[in-house]
Amino acid sequence: MQQAPLSYGSDASGLVCGYVFGRAQEGVGMPLNADEACAWLDNREQHPAEFIWLHYNLANTASEKWLNEHLSLPEEFYESLHEGPRSTRIEVADNTLIAVVNDVLHDFSFDPSDISTLWLSVDKQVVISARRKPLRAIDSLRNAVRNGEPIRSSVELLIHLLRDQADALIKIVRHAIATVDSIEDNLLAGKLNTKRASLGELRRVLVRLRRLLAPEPAALFRLLQRPPAWVAEIDAQELRQSTEEFSMVLADMASLQERIKLIQEEIAALVNEGNNHSLFVLTIVTVLALPINIIAGLLGMNVGGIPLADAPHGFLVVVLIVASFTAIAGWLAFRRQRDLR
Q1: Domain residue limits at 215
Q2: pLDDT tens sequence across 217-244
Q3: Is the whole-model pTM more than 0.70?
Q4: In sequence order, what E strands does the chain have?
Q5: Considering its fold, how many domains does the chain have in total?
Q6: Is the same domain home to 281 and 321?
Q7: CA angle, corner 114, sides to 109 and 119, nearest 5?
Q8: Same structural domain for residues 334 and 242?
Q9: Mean pLDDT by 10 residues, the chain (341 residues)
Q10: Which protein family is it in (predicted)?
C-alpha cells in the first residue's frame, strides 16, 4: 500500500488556508485552494481591487519551495524564516511590509517553549503568512475571516492579526494576575504554600513574553513615519492605534513583573524570619541544657571529694542548684531577645 505524504495540517503545497478579498465580495474572504491561488497570482493585474491571503505551514517542507516557485517575495522574508527568536518587528523591504510576530501556542501553559513565531509578507495585493506551530492569533484571524468578517485591505488584515495577538496576551496577563492575587491572599493570611521558585518561573515567562512580543521601537517608528505609498491613511492610523494598545498591555505586564518581584521579596523575608526564630529556639534549648550538662558531668566523675555524696538531701540540693542556674540562663536569654526587638 502507498502511504499518503505527511501534510501537517496543510495540503501538498503546504497551504493551510487561502482567501481572496475584494469589492465584489464586499471585503468578505472567499476561500481558495493552491491551484486557484496560482491562477489568481498569474492574473493579478486583472483584479486591481482585490487582494489575496495565503497561510502556510513551514513544518511542511513543500511550503518554502512553493513560495519560491510562485511568488517574488523580498529576500529579507526568506532570511527571517531562518533567524533565531527575535522581538516582534514590522519593517519595509522592497516596498513590502515584512513582519515577524511572536505569539503563543493554543495550549499555552506558561512555559517558554509555548512561544513561537509567525512570519508575514504584506503588499497591496498579496499577504503571505507562515508558521511552524499552531498559534492563537493567526487562528483567531482565520476564524474571523471564515465567519464572514469583512477585511478592507491587506494592511487591515495585519492590524487585525496584531489586535488578536493583543487580545490573547490580555487573557494571559489576566490569568497571571489571578494567580498572583491568590498567592498574595494566601501570603496575607499566613498560608505560605507557594515557593519562590514557582513565582520566579512565572516571572521569567512574563519577561520572555515581553521581550519577544514587544515591537522593536526603531523599525516601527520608521514604518509609522514613512509608510509605503500604497498604504492608505486610515490603515496607517489604525496601525498606529493598534501598536499603542499593544504598548499598554506590555506596560501592564511590566507592572505585574514588579508585583511578582515584591511578593518574592516578602516570601524571602518570611522564610528568613522563620529560620531566625527556629535558630533562636535551638539556641535557648542549648543554653537551658548547659547547666544541667555541666553539673551532671562534674557529679558523674568517679573521684573522691564529690560534695553532698553522703548528705541525705544531696539530690534535692543539686536539683535546686541546677534549676536556679537554668532559670538564670533562661532569663538572660529571653531578656537579650526582648532587647533586640
Answers
A1: 15-269
A2: 667 777 878 888 888 888 888 888 887 7
A3: yes
A4: 15-21, 30-31, 51-57, 89-93, 96-104, 115-122, 126-131
A5: 2
A6: yes
A7: 145
A8: no
A9: 45 90 80 91 86 92 89 89 78 88 76 81 93 87 90 90 83 84 80 70 80 70 82 87 79 85 84 83 80 77 73 81 80 68 58
A10: Belongs to the CorA metal ion transporter (MIT) (TC 1.A.35) family.
Q: Is residue 306 part of a domain?
A: no
Residue 219 domain-assigned (yes or no): yes
Whole-number Å distance between alpha carbons of 72 and 69: 8
- In this structure, what C-alpha cell is assigned to residue 195? 515557593
Query: From CA 230, how far away is CA 32, in angstroms rounded?
Result: 24
Question: Over the stretch 192-201, which tens digit does the pLDDT of each residue have?
Answer: 666 666 787 7
What would the 3-class secondary structure string for 186-245 be? HHHCCCCCCCHHHHHHHHHHHHHHHHHHCCCHHHHHHHHHCCCCCCCHHHHHHHHHHHHH
Say whether both 223 and 281 belong to one domain: no
Q: Which three cell numbers stand for residue 78?
A: 526568506
State the Cα–Cα distance between residues 242 and 88, nearest whole angstrom.
Answer: 14
Residue type for position 57: N
181 and 149 fall within a common domain: yes
* Domain closes at, from 219, 247, 269: 269
Question: Is 5 domain-assigned?
Answer: no
As a whole number of angstroms, the distance between CA 233 and CA 248 comes to 23
**285 and 164, same structural domain?**
no
First to last CA, the chain: 83
Longest dimension (CA), the chain: 124
Grid cell, residue 211, equals 521581550
Closest by CA position to 10, among listed 110, 108, 131: 131
- Rounded-to-integer distance, Cα 103 and Cα 165, Å: 7
Task: Answer whether residue 3 is part of any domain.
Answer: no
Q: At 258, list the grid cell.
A: 514588579
Neighbours of 204 (CB within 10 A): 14
Query: Are residue 176 and residue 39 in the same domain, yes or no?
Result: yes
